[in-house]
User: Fold this.
Amino acid sequence: MDRLNFLSFFLLCLTSVASGNKANKHKPWIETEYQGIVMENDNTVLLNPPLFALDKDAPLHYAGEICGFRVHNGPSGSGTVQFEAVVLDRSTGEGLVRSKEPLDCENQREHSFTIQAYDCGEGPDGANSKKSHKATVHVRVNDVNEFSPVFVERRYEASVPEGRLFDRIVRVEALDADCSPQYSQICFYDIITPNVPFAIDNDGNIKNTEPLDSKHQRVHTFWVTAFDCGKNRAQADAQVVVTVKPSCKPGWMGWTKRVEYTPGSGSIPLFPGLHLETCEETVWNIQATVELQTGHIGKGCDRDSYSDRSVRRLCGAVRGEVDLLPPPSPAANWTSALPTLPSSDSSLVFSFNGSNHVAVVPDPVVSALSGDHFTLQLWMRRGGGNIQPATAPTRGNRKEEETIVCSTVRNDDSFSHYSLSVHGCRLSLFYWPDVAAARPVKFLWKLEQVCDSEWHHLSLSVQFPSVTLYVDGVTFDPALIHDNGAIPNPAPRQRMFIGACWEPDEKQKEMQNNTISEVKYVGSYHGLLSGVTVRPGSVEPHSVVECLYACREGLDFGDLETLGSGMKVHVNPSQSVLVLEGDDIESFNRAVQQVTYRNSLRFATPGVRPLKLTTSLRCFNEESCLSLKQLEGYLVVLQPDAPQISLSGVGPHLARPAPEFEGPRGVSLFPELRIVCSLSHAVNTAAQGMEGGALMSDAVAHTLDGCEVQPLGEELNPEREELLVDMDVVRERGLEIINTTAYIAITGAESISVYEDVLRSVRYRLAKGSARFERRFRLSCSEMNGRYTSNELTLEVNFLHSLDNLYHPSHLLASQQQFLHPSHHAGELSGHTLPNPHRNSVVPGAATVIIMVCVGFLVVMVILGVFRIRSIHRRGEGARGGSKDGSGQWDDSALTIIVNPMETYESRMGISADMEGEGEEEEVAESPEDASDDQRIIVKKEGRDGAARRY
Assistant:
């Protein structure tokens, strides 16, 4: 080697002499990349390969020597700060890389930088020095086992059921701060407490070595330590506490079979204390289904307790619908033969038995339904009641379609035909736009809702050729069938059937004057129908359809934001089924406790709603996975506090001169009517230091659905009297009115203020010369189709007649009546000021008054005795003959008015408390005959037959 170096040096010298002794021609040369290692407790970097810089100018002095190395920033940018390179031998170019300060492997394990060599130039001053290329240096800091393991927790706790062996009860964990895998990993754990029935593996999993017994030892406490791979022991040991629970029974804990719901309380949790116990079984999927059964409540759930027409108004539906199944009445008698079933939601449910139960809609009703744009809505339930749904078709026994609506209507000069039918689980609309020219089209839907024997709401909007079907507020697309084979054309005759269709018999088509009894029915429907309406024109918006179907009660989830990770919740459209799914027991238990029942009706339908909870578990070991039985319970909706509808501000007497009633507008009966709805509920006063209980009344905003004004006694005589209503107010509010001689009925769901305005416009008018002396009316209101009714407000109308033209037997008694007894009902008019027909009469002096009273008293006592005898005799004859007072015609030719002057005198002097009690009884008398003869005006009238009548 020395010979080789000498030879190289000799050749370099010869080359230098041959080149004319030119100095420092070449740059130093180093390797392109170096790998280095340095220990945490040392600063010298061991490089591979070693650091040597060569220069071809050697052995020239200065030019062939290496004067230094320079360190430049590497990718980390810290090379110039932490490392330096020094020259160990200038002639050989040997160098050394070292760190300027101690390195920390935990802070930074690897370093990268570049290094460059410089020669000494052409002289001592380093002039014209040359530098090599930059070489990359990678330095790895070797770790020193300077840290000991540290446990993550100082105390570990776990609970296990007794009598079982577990693969893992609890896992302890320790960490080491060293940077290398050799010293940072925990090689093994150890239980340092002797004689405990537990073992620990190298991963920190603790298991029991024998079944634990809670009776023998309830709590086990022991200590655990850890060692890293450098055999350093943990700084502090960890404590482990294992609690042994009694034998575990897997299943739901805290189940309450009965849940009570108070109407008006909003949403309540159904399972506030429910949790699932799996007894440490490893479960990776849990699914629970909560089912609320409300099929027996009205049409499938608790909805608005109003009629279908009122619900349509509340939902903002377009007006103009025609009720095809109205309540039976003289004006709508085509449903009178159909059997009906009771319903808790105040709607009328019609039953069809599939044979002779068919409703034939009259031609005047059908004539209003022309056009190829219409909306058909109905509630349907296959089967129901005592009716069984049609059996499924079998081979060789094909059941025919069941027709719900079959209609042929006139469209200008043509006829269109359609029929809505069900067949198995299929719903079909057969539409024929022109029975004389066009081909029919069949729209078909396959729906489970058609054959599940539950209530469903159907809304069919036809804008031919477009058809939209909503079932329970959800839209479904149809399948079209254009080729229907040989189908006979329907007869071009306008008619509509509900519950069946007429047989397309050619002989019947030729008979132009056939009667309904001759029509043969086909495709009869088995089931229940309610609220069947058709409205021609534009279709209903989707929001209206959803409102018509919307349930006011159902299942809900409390707060979706609290739903844990991995949890899913799903509620069906009718909110009767709620499904929870998750993979974590704790999150699942919290989610189950958030399941709620809500009912937005203020007056919910009381009764029982069955509840079911079905649970499905999936485990890693499917063979030993738990199987939980279905839980059954029930929700009880308590009886709501009944609202009190109070009518006030009227009567009980209304007195006006007779000419006012004979005017063109009559007299308003209820000008100051006030309607107030309130809820009375019990209040616990014991906490307030009071004895007993109390009732508190809260005013609430209600929606009335009907009021009725009824004349008491005989019905109104249309030739002499009538009740008038402001029809503009009624039409503006969309209310309906029935005005007959027996009553006035105003119906429709509206606010109290609207009903007040309408009722205040009710007027009573008489024909000229038809005024009597009194007429009584009764007013009552209700809400929720009569479920809650108001008090009955009775109003007695008195007609004040002028006495100037009446014959009186005694001028003295006439003066007494004017002065002492101007009006029998003057004190009972609740603030009404009665006009005095004798305002210019002269008031007698005090002496005259005393004389009048005395003389009048004697005269009245005699007349009173005679009238009492005649009254008793007349009552006996009236009881035997059953004649009605005041029911015959009367004339004014022999009118005699006899006044008891003592009544007014005694009432003014206030000398008898008993007379006040009798006066109270007089106010609540049902008719004038209930009052005694000496406490009212007695009108004696002789008719043509000479019999005396009293009014």
Remarks:
- The first strand starts at residue 33 and ends at 39.
- Residues 433 and 836 are 73 Å apart (CA to CA).
- The longest helix spans residues 846-881.
- Residues 251-296+552-637 form a domain with the Immunoglobulin-like fold (CATH 2.60.40).
